[in-house]
Batch of 3 targets.
Target 1
Amino acid sequence: MSVREASCACGKLTAHVEGEPVRVSVCQCLDCKRRTGSAFAWNAVFPAEQVRIEGDFTTFERGSEDGFWARHHFCPACGSTVFYEIERRPGMISIPVGVFSDPDFPAPTVEVYGERRPAWLPELAPTQE
C-alpha cells in the first residue's frame, strides 16, 4: 500500500495518506482558481479514514458557486492550504496535489468546470461530471 505525505511550505502541517486516491481531478471553477492563484486546481480525493493530519491548522469556510459549503484547512504559520472538505463529498478529504511535491503523482482523470478552461489551455481530461 502506498504512503504519501503532503505538507505546507514551512512543514508545520502535514497530511499522511495511505492508499491511492479515489479521484484525481482538475477543477476550473472560479473558487479553485482563487484558492490556487492559478488557471486551475489539481486535487486528489481520499476517504477520510486514509488521511492522518498532524499539526495545527486554521479553517476558512465559504459557499461554492453552486451553494454548497467548502472548508479549507491551512497552516496558520505559512498560509498553505493542505487539505479541504466539501459538502458534496461527505467522509472524503481533498488534498491539492502540489502539497505532495511528487512529480510522479497520478494524472487527473476528471475535469470539472471545463467550460471555464482558458482558451490557451488544452483539455486536460475527459469531462465526467
Target 2
Amino acid sequence: MDTLTIFGALAVSAMLLFYALEARSAWFVVAFAAACVASSAYGFLQGAWPFGVVELIWSVVALRRWIERRAASN
C-alpha cells in the first residue's frame, strides 16, 4: 500500500467514525466535515475528480448542518 492509499483509507474511516458519533456533539459534525475535505483531497490526488467533487459537497452540507445545530442550541 502506498501513502496515498493509506491517507484515503484513514480519511474515509474518519468520515464513518465521525458520522456515527454526530448525535453526541455538534463538534463531531465539524470533524465529519473535515474528514470529507480530506476524502475530497484524496479523490483529487488520486485522479478520481468526481469523488473529490462529491466529498467537497458533503463537507459543505455538513458545515451547514453544524451551523444550524449551533443556532438551534443558542
Target 3
Amino acid sequence: MAKKILVIDDEELIVRSLKKLLEKNAFEVFIAKNGQDAIVMAEEEDFDLIIADMRMPGLNGAESVHSIFENLDKKKVKRTPVIFITGYADTEMEDKAKALDPIAYIYKPFDIPELVDKVREALK
C-alpha cells in the first residue's frame, strides 16, 4: 500500500510539481491549499508524512502542523513526520518550525533528489 503524504501549500506550481514528483515515486498525495483545510484533512485521514509550506495566507505551515499535532496528541496517536519548505529566510518562523522537530527544513528552490531523499528518510 502506498504511503500517504499530505502536501500543504498555496502555490499552484509547487503543488502540481510536488504531486507529480511524489506520485512518480509511488506515494499517494493529498493536497491542502491552506492550513485550515489541512487540519480538517488530518482529522479524517492518517498520513505517513506532511510536507508544509511555511508562508501561506491564514495559518502558516508551523501553525497548521502545530494544530494537527495537538489533535494527534489528544488522541494519543504518534505524531506524523513533517518536512517544512520555504522560500523565505525568516529566523523566527524557522525557530517555530524547528520546535516541532521536523525531518527537514528545506529552502525553495529545492534540490529534487534532496527532497526525495528526505521523504524516503522520513518514511522508513
